[in-house]
Amino acid sequence: MAEDRARQPIDWSAVRAVIGKDVDAVRRSKAIVLPMLIVPFLLLVVLPLVIGIAARSQSSIDVSKFLSNIPGDLARPILRLPVRQQLVVLVNGYLLAPLFLIVPLMVSAVLAADAFAGEKERKTLETLLHLPLSERDLFIAKLLAAFVPAVVLSWVGFVCFAVVTNTVAWPVMHRIFVPTRLWLVMIFWVAPAVAALGLGVMVRVSARARTTQEANQLGGAVILPLIFLAVGQSAGLLLVSVQIALAIGLVLWVIALALCARGAHRFTRDQLAARL
Amino acid sequence: MTAIEVRDLSRSFGANVALEGLTFDLRAGEVLALLGPNGAGKTTTVRLLNGVLAPDRGEARVLGIDPARDGDALRRHTGVLTENAGLDDRLTARENLEFVAKVRGLRGAGGARRIDELLGRFGMTDRADDKVQGFSTGQRKRLALARALLHDPEVLFLDEPTSGLDPAATRDVIELIGSLATERGRTVVLCTHFLGEAGRLAHRMAVLHHGRLHAFGRPDELAAQLWDGLDADLDLGVAADERIRSLVEQVDGVSMATATPEGLRVRVHDRDAMARVVALLVGREVPVYGAIPRVPTLEDVYFAIEARVGSQPPPAPEARLDG
């Protein structure tokens, strides 16, 4: 069976068929779609909106006391701003950035659990295994079915965030201040890496889990600490140079790809069928 | 032409031996009934023959292809109905078929026509655009059968194809499977607990028990191995009395004679012995209204083998209405 993988080219039409089927099915599942939309909506639309409105109020919140307690590298450029701009730049420009990474992580993990463990739960996995679809192609299809929507949703969420943030803060800022260069690194480099990381974890977890719920629970135990780690890491990201942010993204990519590669190694018909 | 060749095929899961030393040949256009209790190794056999599982030992060739080495190539020519229909509840009937059609390279107008044709064939046209979620077991089974036949496979592996179907649909599916084999030359491996349906369809039967093959062959060949002789019911109008019964039992070539409500059941070694029995009765002015040979059914053979596996003597074949 292993020989099949190396010899044949990828059957992209079959891969697209699996991705299309998975995406169609997920779109119709409210239990999956609603959390995937509500969390980004709260984080990337409601929160910046509230902060922007608060910053525009006459009695603007003075954050200078808070800024005096955080590292100078971060505080200095904000402290140089007028008081009314400090709140919106601190929260929307800096503090929300790490929270943004929750979106690709959560979405990829949820979709991966549905794509891998969900097939077992719905008793549709055996049917897939009996199709003329190589293990490699099936694995690629399942990865992409979770990865692509996670990245697309993150990017769409970020565009919404940028529009809302800049619009609501315009009377205070009088300029477009999001995205910064570091934000762009986050969006195009770190966020996909985080999505891949969530995917890698769930691929491993789903191999053992029999249901989506079990996969989510097991994955949550692994992913929640990663979320906190990501939050801590990315809060620091905005303090560092673009080069260091790129390096951190690279480390995340390496871990994610290693997890996925190990998952691929174990993703064999024989092992999957033996657990049915 | 041999469609399936299996030699010493074996597979274990940890300490559990799922299949041990399976060996048989099946010709193209034949229906094989794979029989046995739950856990006998039927599903493992299908998974091994379609390259979903790899064997620990032994080898198989299906349509000349080794499933363990070239499974994807083989699966282009096989269709599988798993015991569970394996349909995505969130998709419609048509979408479930479209997905498999795309993976199998059936695209465009040709693919759509084939899907419409099969939906019609299985009476699912009016539910084609409904989500599978609300379907009955029978509707799921019919849709899964349609999916298995989408690409007109040369070999079909069907696991309980009629379970959950109503009598009319059951008859329809049995006729379809029969015609696929006899008219289209398709080879069918049928896993079933319904021995009547197996008896109507199967050219050969294989009895598995705890992963071991205990019998393989044509049901009549296996019956000949199990029972030495031919059973027949003699219609005498009334139950034979003890005098007649003992007289018949003494005829050369008769191994057994038992009174029945309508006359006598005898077991003879050959047709000549039956002629001697009839001549004796007629000579004694006992009217013989009929002599009906009793051919053991697949069900008789199966239970006899099951009994032998359990170290019990094989029971005499029982009369079956569907035999």
Can you put this structure into words, describing what you see?
The complex is a heterodimer of chains A (276) and B (323). Chain A has helices at residues 2-7, 12-27, 30-56, 64-67, 72-79, 83-100, 102-121, 125-129, 135-173, 181-208, 212-237, 242-266, 269-274. Chain A has 276 residues and is mainly alpha-helical. The mean pLDDT of chain A is 82. In chain B, 36% of the residues lie in helices and 26% in strands. The longest helix of chain B is centred in the middle third of the chain and has 16 residues, at 167-182. In chain B, helix 8 (219-226) packs across helix 11. The model of chain B is unreliable at 312-323 (pLDDT under 50). Chain B is α/β, with parallel strands linked by helices and 323 residues long. Chain B contains eleven helices and 13 strands. Classes of the chains: A mainly alpha (276), B alpha/beta (323). Chains A and B meet through helix 2, helix 8 and helix 13 of A and helix 2 and helix 3 of B.
